[in-house]
């Protein structure tokens, strides 16, 4: 039977008008939580227009209720019990921004068990307990969203899942820790050693009093684990990642890298190979002319190589209250749009397509195939050819050999750039080189990444 178009549209209009507010409960009101509250309040109308419905913070769990009241006023219910927020019937989605991997796991699983969607910026929680959390979410048909857990203001998860959905991802590489990037920038620009650069980062608030998670590469490895899972559809494999921080990095190597036309960056790399997936975080040499070499201070950047789109790069702030809030609220907008639709239409959880790459192992360190930088202390300047010959004997391809520029208090140094070689073969060659009479001290090695297509 024919129906007038205006008459047909009217019930739809009423249905749209009847869509209720998405009610948010938040656990934690620290740096990220307070930023989320401010941005939600300031941009309320724009956010509602983009989400198709209002998003309202209705409840907050905080350790310090007096401080929390000073942030959110009397418009939001406050409680000291995080589990109360996780299970409350008037909360549709739980935002977990308290951090940690113990209680946070319990709160998130409780929220999921009660049919609530979850948004979190807690990369450690997902890297360690993600398999359990995502399995529970799939079973309940709810969303777990975590854009703010990876690269703060950079929407890299959305780029991998949606913008590059047509592509086979070949590799992902990123500067995904702002603290270490700030330190490395200071070491290069001001000639500081690691300890002095770290002290400056702490004084300016870029590094925590205990910076271990950042400077040891653990924070970056948590994020890389999530990037790899999204890029390749593989399970979360944080325990298998090769992780090396910057604590042992010396200023002389930063200077020598510059001499050779490179800059040192702490890079997370996930690369698909025939035998498995490289999953590694380490300081590497990047060509000084490359865009990634110009990501300085606390900024982050992620580069993706895919078969159809080719090389794409994403750049933005790697830390900050409202910067992280931007990602958290973007996830809330996704939840607002998808809440109520069939679970199969939700943004897919990690591991949904894992059957395609589950068989791929994470490659062991010895099997990773890259070029390398070597700094070899020698007794005399005329021993440069002996070093090159020693590497050639071990079948290590040598692309460039040079003498390091003189530095106060540093003896003669031979610098070598190799061609691509497996790490295991290079380790054996360096061990043999170390035993040669010409070598005057420990040989320093770093990987070299071209970041080319």
What features would you describe in this structure?
There is one protein chain. This protein is of the alpha/beta class. The protein has three domains: 5-152 and 323-356, NAD(P)-binding Rossmann-like Domain (Rossmann fold); 156-318, Dihydrodipicolinate Reductase, domain 2 (2-Layer Sandwich); 365-448, Alpha-Beta Plaits (2-Layer Sandwich). It has 16 helices and 18 strands. The protein has helices spanning 5-17, 31-42, 44-51, 65-72, 82-87, 103-113, 123-140, 156-163, 178-190, 194-203, 212-215, 218-232, 251-259, 321-338, 384-393, 423-434; strands at residues 22-27, 55-61, 77-79, 93-96, 117-120, 144-145, 169-175, 242-243, 262-273, 276-287, 299-306, 310-317, 361-362, 369-377, 398-403, 413-418, 421-422, 444-448. The strands form two sheets. Strands 7, 8, 9, 10, 11, 12, 13, 14, 15, 16, 17 and 18 form a twelve-stranded mixed sheet that branches. A six-stranded parallel sheet has the order 3-2-1-4-5-6, sandwiched between helices. Helix 6 links the parallel strand 4 (93-96) and strand 5 (117-120). Helix 2 (31-42) packs across helix 14 (321-338) and helix 7 packs parallel to helix 12. It is elongated.
């Amino acid at each position: 039977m024919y129906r007038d178009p205006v008459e047909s549209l009217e019930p739809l209009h009423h249905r749209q008008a009847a869509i209720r507010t998405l009610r948010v409960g938040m656990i934690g009101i620290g740096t990220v939580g307070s930023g989320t509250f401010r941005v939600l309040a300031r941009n309320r109308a724009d956010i509602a227009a983009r989400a198709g419905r209002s998003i309202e913070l209705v409840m907050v769990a905080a350790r310090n209720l007096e401080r929390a009241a000073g942030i959110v006023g009397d418009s939001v219910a406050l409680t000291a019990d995080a589990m109360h927020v996780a299970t409350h019937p008037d909360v549709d989605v739980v935002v977990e921004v308290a951090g940690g991997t113990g209680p946070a796991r319990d709160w998130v699983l409780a929220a999921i068990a009660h049919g609530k969607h979850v948004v979190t910026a807690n990369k450690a929680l997902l890297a360690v307990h993600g398999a359990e959390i995502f399995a529970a979410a799939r079973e309940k048909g709810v969303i777990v969203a975590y854009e703010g857990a990876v690269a703060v203001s950079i929407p890299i998860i959305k780029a991998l899942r949606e913008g590059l959905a047509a592509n086979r991802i070949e590799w992902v590489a990123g500067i995904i820790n702002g603290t270490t990037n700030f330190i490395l920038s200071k070491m290069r620009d001001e000639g500081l050693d690691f300890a002095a650069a770290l002290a400056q980062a702490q004084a300016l608030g870029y590094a925590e009093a205990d910076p271990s998670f950042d400077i040891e590469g653990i924070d970056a490895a948590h994020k890389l684990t999530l990037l790899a899972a999204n890029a390749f559809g593989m399970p979360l494999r944080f325990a298998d990642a090769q992780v090396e921080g910057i604590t042992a990095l010396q200023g002389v190597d930063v200077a020598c890298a510059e001499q050779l036309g490179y800059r040192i960056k702490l890079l997370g790399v996930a690369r698909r190979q025939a035998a498995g997936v490289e999953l590694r975080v380490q300081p590497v040499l990047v060509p000084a002319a490359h865009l990634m070499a110009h990501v300085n201070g606390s900024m982050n950047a992620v580069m993706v190589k895919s078969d159809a789109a080719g090389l794409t790069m994403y750049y933005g702030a790697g830390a900050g209250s409202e910067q992280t809030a931007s990602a958290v609220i973007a996830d809330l907008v996704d939840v607002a749009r998808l809440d109520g639709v069939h679970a199969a239409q939700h943004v897919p959880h990690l591991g949904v397509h894992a059957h395609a790459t589950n068989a791929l192992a994470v490659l062991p360190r010895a099997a990773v195939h890259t070029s390398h930088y070597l700094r070899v202390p020698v007794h005399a300047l005329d021993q440069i050819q002996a070093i090159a010959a020693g590497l050639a004997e071990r079948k290590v391809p040598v692309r460039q050999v040079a003498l390091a520029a003189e530095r106060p208090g540093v003896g003669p140094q031979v610098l070598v750039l190799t061609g691509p070689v497996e790490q295991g073969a290079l380790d054996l060659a360096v061990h043999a080189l170390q035993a040669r009479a010409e070598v005057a001290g420990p040989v320093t090695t770093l990987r070299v990444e071209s970041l080319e297509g």
